[in-house]
Amino acid sequence: MSLEKLAIHGGEKAIKTEFKKYNSIGDEELNAATDVIKSGSLSKFVGCWEPDFYGGSKVQEFERMCEKIFNVNYAVTVNSWTSGLVTAVGAIGIEPGDEIIVTPWTMCATATAILHWNAIPVFADIEPDTFNIDPESVKKNITQYTRAIMAVDIFGHSCDIDALMKIADEYNLTVIGDTAQAPGTFNNSRVTGSIAHVGGYSLNRHKHIQTGEGGICVTNDKNIAENMQLIRNHAEAVVGDKGHENLINMIGHNFRMGEIEAAIGIEQLKKMDQFVLSRQETARKITDQLKNISGLKLPIVKSGCTHSYYMYPMTLDKNIIKVSREKIQNALEAEGMQGLDPGYINVHLLPMYQNKMAYGSSGFPWNSEICKREVTYKKGICPVAEELHESTYLGFNNCDFDITDDQIDSIGLAYRKVFSQLESL
Ligand SMILES: *Cc1c(COP(=O)(O)O)cnc(C)c1O
């Protein structure tokens, strides 16, 4: 290919069209929602101990369907996966001051759920190739106060769940999974998200399947499932009549899912495999275009795993590429590239952690007797994750768009143009 003038230097753009927004909602969802609206019964939950404590018929139908598809004994739907994470952490009986080891390379809600129960997030570093929490780093962060590990299947690739379950077994910890980005994927023929003690999926509008807002908690443990049903729905008002004797974390919320969302969720679940397949197809074609570009590392899929490509993650090999990511991103965007993302600001570097100020003004829970030791969030505790966000990660928001084959070809052209003329940037 002859060198063409880069768009950032006044040349012609490689990508000339806007990427179409990914939209998973069709007539099936429209009809399902309409039927619920016509019925007038938009929610049936009652926050006391009677049959409707478990929600309306669509919610229950959706939950039974989730149990089948995610291969778990219990699914408990909630009004967002953020609520779901809070529900899951509470349901395992966490105590204030308990430490939960979590990845910094995730959406903030993963770690916030820990603080919600006045437990203490401890950040472990990640693997540079899958971007998931590194079991070796988890081990190094275990203390006598550690109670759980929170693992995310980031970007759509399963974390090393077997290694984490083994550590959990050895140290008597609970594993909480956050599979928001990896529905419909597998780890050695097991459904990703079904192996942790408790976990779940997001139904937020950015995800493969959505109900606008919503979440699904899953577990094989009957007690955890029951606790989640209670926390979702005003636990404190229900436990007495229900005869529920264990009062740990029986402070309840209204995290209930409505019937419209559940009806939409049922239709979305039916299409989930097809949606995930289409993300995988796009990723395969992008890989075809970008695989020979020196210095650009493309996503890996570990043997036995499948990838949902919520993100199409890429990193710059600093040994080969001496130009800053910012310059490369600017040049690609000038070529018309859309949906580029420099990854997660590491959660421990957010102001709340840097200032150790979550509840009120006195530094609670860190600066209080419930926090049993000094936990550090200093820059440098997670070098792999920090470097990715600072300088080497540059992913494509694959789940945001439905791109055409022509557009994928033009992405290839844009990358080849820019990466063959890096010295000019
Ligand atoms: C989207 C997401 C969440 C939050 O889910 P919501 O349904 O938006 O509350 C949590 N964790 C990860 C990894 C996510 O991608």
Number of helices: 13
Alpha-carbon Rg, integer: 23 Å
β-strand number: 15
The secondary-structure element order is EHHEHEHEHEHEEEEEHHHEEHEHHEEH
> Mean pLDDT score, rounded?
97
Q: In what range is the share of β-strand residues?
A: 5-15%
* Main pleated sheet: 4 strands, parallel
The general outline is globular
| Structural class category | alpha/beta
**Low-confidence sequence ranges:** none
Could you give the order of strands across the largest sheet? 4-3-5-6
Task: Describe, in plain words, how this protein is organized in 3D.
- The chain has helices at 27-39, 57-69, 81-91, 109-116, 135-140, 161-171, 222-232, 235-242, 259-290, 325-334, 351-354, 383-392, 405-419, and strands at 20-21, 74-78, 99-102, 120-123, 146-152, 174-178, 186-187, 190-191, 198-202, 215-219, 296-297, 315-316, 340-341, 395-396, 401-402.
- With 425 residues, it is an alpha/beta fold.
- Helix 4 (109-116) links the parallel strand 3 (99-102) and strand 4 (120-123).
- The radius of gyration is 23 Å and the shape is globular.
- The mean pLDDT is 97.
- Pyridoxal-5'-phosphate binds at residues 80-82, 106-107, 109-110, 152, 178, 180-181, 202, 204, 215.
